[in-house]
Amino acid sequence: MPRPERCRVVITGLGPICAFGVGIQPLWSALLEGRSAIAPVRRWDASGFASNAAAELLLDTFDVKSAVPKSYRKATKVMARDIEFAVGAAQEAVRDAGIVTRATEGATPTIPPDRFGCQIGAGLIAADVDELTAALWTSRGADGNFDIAHWGETGMTNLTPLWLLKYLPNMLSCHVTIIHDCQGPSNTITCAEASAGLSCGESMRVIQRGDADVCLSGGAECRVHPMSMLRQGFARRLAATPTGVDPATITRPFAPDATGGLLGDGGGIVVLENGATAAARGAVALAEIAGFGASQCFCPDTIGVEVNETGEEIAMAIAAALDDAGITADAIDAIVPFGSGIPHVDQPEAAALVSVFGSRARSIPLIQVMPFVGNCGAGAGALAIIVGAQAIRTQTLPARINTTGCTALDANVTPARAATLKNVLVVITSLGGQNAAIVLRAVA
Amino acid sequence: MTLHSTPMQNEPRIVITGMGWITPLGHDLASVWSNLMAGASGMAPIDRFDARTFPTSFAAQVRNFDVTRYVKDMAVHRTAGLNTCFALGAARQAWEQSGLSKSGAVNARRAGIYLGAGEGVLDTEHYFATNIAGWDEAAGMIDGRRWAEAALREMTALREIEQEPNMPVSHLAREFGLRGPAYNCLTACAASTQAIGEACTILKRGDADVMLSGGTHTMIHMLGVTGFNRLTALSTSKGDPTKASRPFDRDRDGFVMGEGSGMVVLETLDHASARGAKPLAEVVGYGSSADAFRITDIQPEGRGAAASMTMALRQAGIDPHSTRADGRAPIDYISAHGTGTKENDSIETKAVKRVFAHNAERIPMSSVKSMMGHLIAAAGAVELITCVMAIEEGMLPPTINYQTPDPSLDLDYVPNVARRAKVDVCLSNSFGFGGQNDTLVVSRWAS
User: Fold this and answer.
1) Do A136 and B205 make contact, defined as CB atoms within 8 angstroms?
2) CA end-to-end span of chain A
3) B177 to chain A: which residues are within 8 Å by CB?
4) Where are the domains of chain A?
5) Inter-helix orientation angle B167-176/B82-98, to 10°
6) What's the CA gap between A58 and A60, in Å, rounded?
7) Which pTM was predicted?
8) Residue B357 zone, left/alpha/beta (φ > 0; ψ -120 to 50; rest)
9) Is this complex scored with an ipTM above 0.95?
């Protein structure tokens, strides 16, 4: 159907957060150098799992206390690590966009609060195991097992009163809206890895339909957590990390010998803005979000571990995004694929790319993200979009690592190089079968 | 440059063509509605786990629910958690009522899904056993190696994966063959109101013709009750549980947990008309806002709630200060968020007054949470269906347990007894912990 005239939506600020730290510089340098952050897990002894390496964002690299206004430090006590990542990413995105918000005490905010929206995707936030178990431990009965009667009576008082609020997925958005005074439309999409991509797509729509001028958008998750490691392992998504093999070399998207993915911490927030208001305040548009499409895979198993091998629905989302951007497949210069290195996830994605791009699929350069920063769950799509935008902004394709022997796609190891990048496609799939595709475009 | 949402001439109209309810007051539209009309309560002692020593030991559970009544091939959904089963039950009702179950009635690629579903229930027994087995008492922390060994021994793959909040979406997409845009949002207690509002925007912009939407949730489990008890958000009333949920009453002392699912089929009017489907109601307005105030408190003047209502009314083309030609207030009924906490009910009342001014006292506003408890992420969808039923039946559900007026809460809360009324336009509010607010406006469908 013909679409009505809509405003352009541009990215004016990048706030990635990942194992390399906060901000585009540490991430981009690593991508240019072909340096992965994946290493044995240090936060706890993960050696009981067959897969025990990840891209961790440790406290010495990112401490949320340095990312909030002094008046908000107390509130960091009720933040799960996932929430801390969102708060850190938002602060960086806002800084990068040159926006002044309530976070700067005493300053006049750039964006009217009621025109400032926030859509941040989140995962299933797992409770801190130490904190919960310390409380549970007080309610062991005579047999050493958990005694629920004791728990109800007194044991539960060992949990801090606000315990639940640390783990509600909407708290990523809520803390960010409070810190930056975003009173406009607000959402929390929870579709596993598709969360941030769907959030950015929906923020674009919020701006297009005139409900906000600016949105903080993206997603974040702390996937380097014993419960995530357990669940992702159960979902057959993790590669084993045998002794003697450098874990940084294990994630090999689209390689015939790929064995699985590894997890990462982080995600990102971008500042999305109505092109007209961005221009009016003299902001630099880094890239335009030109198209968005979404779809649901047919999953024979209902939970999305097994997806349609033809990749038909992933192709539908891509086609919708191209159509929305008003371009055909010929106009795509590079692709940031989901590219997880999980064979049964890469396979339908590759099939989708081949079905959309035909023989050109093998010559459109792919940009890797997960081999560097791991699979950041609800944050994965945000990192993909940020890397795509940075590639456009710098007209550079970052290096690819690990993958060899891929013939269907341009996915094998290569150093970074300059390239003309006008339209970059970002593809995001998820455990559960939700897909998002986004077209990023260079600003004329 | 300010381009607020306003009703547009050529914008597609969005209608509801099917609805389904799995709630503590019944498992189909007719029985839930008759219970709401009778002022029945779904509250009773919790029997899903031993809550006898908990500060709150009662809730409104869904009882005698048999998911196999709604699902033809249960083998496909054998690992579904309770929240997904509720969703399957409610969605099947909505799908059948819409007539889309007839073959060829819908193009799967143009049919999407947008839920506000909560996370699944933890496998508490095995999770706790793992944590205790993995605990290093001397160090005061888990021993990672022992924890992993216990976890791999105790916990099971599918029960863990099924807890992801997008799993109900995946199950429903599989059950009904939907392959269009698919989402789940989890904006706490506002989630399914948000889901329905967002689904309408997806239809309006032409990305789908049909959206299955709504919510499903249960937090009636050990850590759910623990979490809300620690927040002191729940009623800890020691008397008759059916009297514990007392929205807008002076002696209200917190909400009572409910569980279940509400689902609707949304369509563009064109799509519904083309296949001869009868619209049950039209969704005419949606608003979303954030308090941006505090994690633990609602903005005291109800700023965010008012913003969300104002946005929804503006989209509906309704001036809250106006009077209709027949002398009625501009809307006929508000389905309140009305949780029964001190703070919510007083601030919601303020926000309604702020939006409707002199009209506020003329608009009946009740809380079905007095009868079926707070269905958390599912509450908004369940309550929107209440509004559509009110339009169809010309009856307003009451706020039960309203015994002692709170001097500062002076609106018409439809106390205790259902009321006959002319109902054409209703507004439904949902406000989430942390300050995300959503409002929907539905109207009698008229061509």
Assistant:
1) no
2) 27
3) 298
4) 9-126+167-441, 129-164
5) 40
6) 6
7) 0.97
8) left
9) yes
